Each structure stands twice: as structure tokens, then as C-alpha cells.
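Q: what sequence does this backbone want?
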């Protein structure tokens, strides 16, 4: 067990890493939760050919589809992060999420283009789920790989607050827009505004993440050639990794989130994880 100095303060670079990773993830959760908060209105716009109860069910199923593909996003982007680096994978996930949300805001309704509208909507929801699946674990990975020994739990705990903050942000934007436009205009066209303004959050997120440096642990593994060649089989087929030993040395970290538990390792990541 490494010695932890209780009086040690975060450095400026560490604060920047946590802030940038957390803000980007907050914005992604904002995009993700907008749909859930406006599901009733979206049901009337994209499933209008069905009775009210049926269209509400379809709207919620489309919302659920984003959650269903999240594990696949962790697998895909966890592997991509090992190939091209954490920083560039961050940029890909935020671009997918932000552009998908913006397109929902300008997408014609089923009254305008028929069945194509809900099909495109569900496709966008799947893209959002994939992006969030890679983003959430990736943010924890990136922060953990910058954290000093014995402080990874505290540093990555900031990432766990992002879902709540993203939900609150989406609700505040919706309430403000509805108050400014009035219930009738909001239900008619104003519901699109929170989706469209997400492009501003996308621009801020991309700018912030362009300022970040690549993870030192990833650079070390890449230089030493110790990254995994078969991360999926090692993550799910070699249980000896539970010992917490890392072939690439103590600087290597991992990250992923599951209900009730945090691992510092993404499914499919080259780094070994300890429970």
C-alpha cells in the first residue's frame, strides 16, 4: 500500500485534468438526458401515428435503446483508446454525442417525413448510447492515469458526479426555455431549442479537450510496447488479472463503471483492473 500524504493538495495540472474530464462528461450526460426529460413531447412528434399510450411506450423504448448499447460503447471505445490514445478517443465520443443531439433538434417529425423520422431518431439514440458508454469509463481512465498513488479513488469520484449534474443542467435549460416561450410554443417547436443549443456545449467541450495532453500511462505503455494485443480475451478470459498486477508497471491504470461498483479499467482496455 503506497503512502498517502493527507496534506497533499492537487496540483494545477491535476485540477485541469479533473475539470476538463468532468465538464465534458457533464455535457454528454446533458445531451443524453434531454431526450428522457422530453420523452412525452418527442412521442407526439415522432410516433404520432399511434395512440397516446403506444407512442409514449415507443418513445421510452427509444430512450432505453441508448442504455442498452452502452456496454458495446465501452468495448469499442475502450479498445480504440488503447490504439490511438485516451485524448483522441475523448474527442470522438464528444463529437458523436454532440452531433447526434444537434441532429435531433433539427430532425423533421413523422408528420413531415413519415416512418423515416422515428428510424433516424432511434439511430441517433443508439449513437448517443455508444458515445456515452465510451465516454464515462474513458473519463475515469484518463483521470486515474493522472492521479498519484493512493488518490485514484478520490480523483475519479468527481466523474461519478457528472450524471447528476448533467441531469440538473438539462432540466434547468428545459425549464428556462419553457418559461421564456410559454407552454404552447414550447410544445410546438420550442422543445428543439435545448437540443440545438447543445452545439455550443459541443464547441466548449472540444476546445477544452484539445488543451489536454495525452495520458502519461498510455504514452509509457506505448513506448514500452506493453499494451495488450487482445484486450477482450484478457479482460474476460484471464481471471488472474484480478490480482491487481499490471504488466506495464505501477503507472498503468484502468477504468469502468458498473452499478454499485467502480473499477479503474474499461472493458476491453489493455490495463489490468483490481477490485
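A:
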Amino acid at each position: 500500500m503506497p503512502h498517502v500524504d493527507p496534506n497533499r493538495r492537487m496540483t494545477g495540472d491535476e485540477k485541469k485534468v479533473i475539470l476538463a474530464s468532468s465538464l465534458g462528461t457533464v455535457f454528454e450526460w446533458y445531451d443524453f438526458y434531454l431526450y428522457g426529460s422530453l420523452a412525452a413531447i418527442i412521442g407526439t412528434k415522432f410516433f404520432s401515428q399511434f395512440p397516446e399510450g403506444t407512442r409514449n411506450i415507443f418513445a421510452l423504448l427509444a430512450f432505453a435503446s441508448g442504455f442498452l448499447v452502452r456496454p458495446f460503447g465501452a468495448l469499442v471505445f475502450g479498445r480504440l483508446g488503447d490504439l490511438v490514445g485516451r485524448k483522441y478517443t475523448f474527442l470522438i465520443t464528444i463529437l458523436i454525442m454532440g452531433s447526434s443531439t444537434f441532429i435531433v433538434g433539427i430532425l423533421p417529425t413523422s408528420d413531415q417525413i413519415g416512418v423515416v423520422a422515428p428510424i433516424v431518431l432511434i439511430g441517433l439514440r443508439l449513437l448517443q448510447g455508444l458515445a456515452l458508454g465510451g465516454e464515462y469509463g474513458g473519463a475515469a481512465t484518463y483521470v486515474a492515469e493522472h492521479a498519484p498513488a493512493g488518490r485514484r479513488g478520490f480523483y475519479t469520484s468527481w466523474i461519478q458526479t457528472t450524471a447528476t449534474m448533467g441531469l440538473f443542467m438539462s432540466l434547468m435549460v428545459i425549464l428556462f426555455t419553457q418559461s421564456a416561450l410559454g407552454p404552447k410554443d414550447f410544445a410546438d417547436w420550442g422543445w428543439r431549442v435545448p437540443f440545438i443549443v447543445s452545439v455550443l456545449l459541443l464547441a466548449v467541450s472540444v476546445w477544452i479537450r484539445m488543451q489536454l495532453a495525452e495520458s502519461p500511462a498510455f504514452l509509457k505503455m506505448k513506448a514500452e510496447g506493453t499494451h495488450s494485443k487482445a484486450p477482450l480475451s484478457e479482460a474476460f478470459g484471464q481471471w488472474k488479472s484480478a490480482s491487481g498486477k499490471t504488466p506495464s508497471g505501477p503507472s498503468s491504470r484502468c477504468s469502468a463503471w458498473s452499478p454499485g461498483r467502480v473499477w479503474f479499467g474499461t472493458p476491453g482496455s489493455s490495463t489490468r483492473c483490481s477490485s
